[in-house]
Design goal:
Keywords: ATP-binding, Hydrolase, Membrane, Nucleotide-binding, Transmembrane, Transmembrane helix. One of its GO terms (cellular component) is plasma membrane. It is an enzyme of class 3 (hydrolase). This is Lipid A export ATP-binding/permease protein MsbA. It is found in: Cell membrane. The protein is of the alpha/beta class. The chain has two domains: 348 residues, ABC transporter transmembrane region fold, CATH 1.20.1560.10; 237 residues, Rossmann fold. Helices cover 64% and strands 10% of the residues. It contains 22 helices and ten strands. The strands form two sheets. The chain has a six-stranded mixed beta sheet with strand order 6-7-8-3-9-10, with helices on both faces. A four-stranded antiparallel beta sheet has the order 2-1-4-5, covered by helices on one side. Helix 17 crosses helix 19. The chain is elongated.
Length: 609
């Protein structure tokens, strides 16, 4: 059994009743498929006037006598009806029998489909939930290596493919094989010679079909990867449309997209050709078998006279009845190959080990009492070392500023404090407790983060600000907006705090977006505030508004300010100057100016900007 199929089994557990009923109804469907064909036999007998006349009601003597008893009882009823009411009523009786068996066959087919529908849709929902849960829980580092589009393709396309293709397996192992088995058993009973003849041709057909299906799974995997790449291009295009247009890069992106679409076209055409070949090929092979059967069976009826004409016609309908499930099996086996390729990509994400999680007996910490200590920390993103033996202490109530050139490791400190990444060596502790020993949710609950890129969602101002405190009242939100110096523009919006701000907050200016990010952090009201270059993307006027908002927010809080613009951090209790992952200077603004070192050089450079 395929390993991906085994991995999928736990997802089917909540729906095991549906599986059981599907199997039961499929068995009944397969049984009535054969019975419905057999009911044509008495119709032909009546039509050709060959009905056996049985006037005495047969007696059932046990399971060994079942076939004979069934046949004799049917002919006894037909004989009685013909004698009492004439041949027309007898014909009506056998025709109604045909209708009834076909009704049951189709009813059981519907019920089987009904149960498999609940199974498929339920598993689809559960897989999507697991996938989304995993996507949200995986560390930030995972996404620095992966394309967003590929993850989206797995979440949407591949999970759908699993739903559409995988459950063909139930048809593959129950419904169609049983239909074939029941038909074959009946065919053996009608004519042993003919059936042995059919069985010689079936394996040959199966071998030819399997040859065509070869390498379908590998092609499906390629196609699904290409879909991921395609979604990535669209995602990046929408995100960077301004840059694409301003650099006249439309032809480059169109070319990249067109190349990907063409590769996908070739792959899907190749897969589609093989899939489309499944039905006509199996039908042609089936009809070839039937044609040879007609010739051989015709000989048995006309020349050897060892087979009755009516029995031969019923035999042919049963042989045709094998064709449909045989076609379905070949089609389903193609589908399953696509499903296996899709499942492989889905489980690839679901099985990624998340290294950044809460320990089993992690401490719940809801207060910040004395200090944050960073001790002998080394850290590197892949190969490049960013922090080297870095140590720093931040006491409660202090505002510490981290400054330095780009790439000096300032933002890495914010990533490590919030445990977006884990240190390679050394420790970071809060009130003497290593942050790895603190429950991840309670650790992040102690911190408010305002980043350079104000990340907002396509929702109302209220929904965006109350992200960290969903129970917040309108008054609390307005108070947070006032502290963040944002209420002055929010109150003028058409619907106030209930105004939708568009995708990524694009209906607002950069300064307005940043002030909303600050209001979000203010409302959360954490004891530790981390400001990662919160003003560096703003113009001078916006910066003044945001600076006031930041100063309001940092009152009575412990703040770690990562700054590019040095004018914003002159009031800090301590300024830490970093270079290549190390502290080169530390002190107040005045002390560092007097020192006439690197900080003074940075201030001088910026004052000329």
């Amino acid at each position: 059994m395929d390993k991906n199929l085994i991995k999928l089994l736990p997802y089917t557990k909540p729906y095991k009743t549906h599986i059981v009923w599907n199997v039961i109804y499929n068995i009944l469907y397969a049984l009535f498929s054969t019975i419905s064909m057999l009911t044509i036999f008495p119709v032909l007998e009546v039509l050709f006037g060959k009905t056996k006349v049985i006037l005495k009601e047969p007696v059932y003597t046990g399971i060994g006598n079942l076939k004979q008893f069934g046949s004799d009882f049917l002919y006894y009823k037909i004989s009685e009806l013909t004698k009492d009411n004439g041949i027309q009523v007898a014909l009506l009786f056998v025709v109604l029998m045909v209708i009834t068996t076909f009704l049951f066959k189709n009813l059981f087919n519907y019920l089987a489909s009904h149960h498999i529908m609940h199974l498929k849709n339920g598993v689809l929902r559960d897989l999507r939930k697991s996938m989304y849960k995993k996507i949200v829980e995986l560390p930030i580092s995972y996404y620095s290596e992966k394309r967003k589009g590929d993850i989206m393709a797995r979440m949407l396309g591949d999970v759908n493919e699993v739903q559409n293709s995988f459950f063909s397996i139930l048809e593959l192992v129950v419904k169609e094989p049983l239909t074939i088995i029941f038909a074959l058993v009946t065919m053996f009973i009608i004519s042993l010679k003919l059936t042995l003849f059919v069985l010689i041709f079936m394996p040959i057909s199966g071998w030819i079909i399997s040859k065509v299906a070869k390498n379908l799974r590998a092609k499906s995997l390629q196609a699904q990867r290409e879909s991921g790449f395609l979604i990535s291009i669209v995602d990046e295009t929408l995100g960077g449309l301004k840059v694409i247009k301003s650099y006249n890069a439309e032809p480059t992106f169109k070319g990249r997209f067109n190349d990907s679409v063409t590769r996908l076209l070739n792959l899907t055409n190749s897969i589609g050709s093989k899939n489309n070949l499944a039905t006509p090929l199996s039908e042609f092979l089936g009809v070839t078998t039937i044609a040879i059967l007609l010739f051989y069976g015709g000989n048995l009826v006309l020349v050897e006279k060892t087979l009755d004409g009516s029995a031969f016609i019923v035999y042919l309908t049963l042989a045709f009845n094998i064709l449909t499930p045989a076609k379905a099996i070949s089609k389903a086996s193609y589908s399953v190959k696509n499903g296996l390729a899709a499942a492989e990509r889905v489980f690839e994400v679901l099985e990624v080990q998340n290294e950044i999680i809460s320990k089993e007996n992690a401490v719940d910490k809801n207060t910040f009492d004395s200090d944050i200590t960073i001790k002998n920390v080394n850290f590197k993103y892949e190969e490049e070392t960013v922090l080297k033996d870095f140590s720093l202490q931040v006491k409660k109530g202090q505002t510490i500023a981290l400054v330095g050139q780009s790439g000096s490791g300032k933002s890495t400190i914010a990533n490590l404090l919030t445990r977006f990444y884990d240190v390679n060596d050394g420790t970071i502790s809060i009130d003497g407790t290593d942050i790895k020993d603190i429950n991840l949710q309670s650790l992040r609950g102690l911190m408010g983060l305002v980043t350079q890129d104000s990340i907002l969602f396509n929702d109302t101002i209220k929904a965006n600000i109350s992200l960290g405190k969903e129970t917040a009242t309108d008054d609390e939100i307005i108070e947070a907006l006032k502290i963040a110096n944002a209420y002055e523009f929010v109150k003028d919006l058409p619907k106030g705090i209930h105004t939708n701000i568009g995708d990524s907050g694009n209906k607002l200016s950069g300064g307005q977006k940043q002030r909303l990010s600050i209001a979000r952090a203010v409302l959360k009201n954490p004891p530790i505030m981390i400001l990662d270059e919160a003003t560096s993307a703003l113009d001078t006027e916006s910066e003044k508004f945001v600076q006031v908002a930041l100063e309001n927010m940092m009152q009575n809080r412990t703040s770690i300010v990562i700054a590019h613009r040095l004018s914003t951090i002159q009031k800090a209790d301590s300024i830490v100057v970093m270079q290549k992952g190390k502290i080169v200077e530390q002190g107040t603004h005045d002390e560092l100016i007097t020192l006439n070192g690197m900080y003074n050089k940075l201030v001088t450079m910026q004052s000329f900007e």
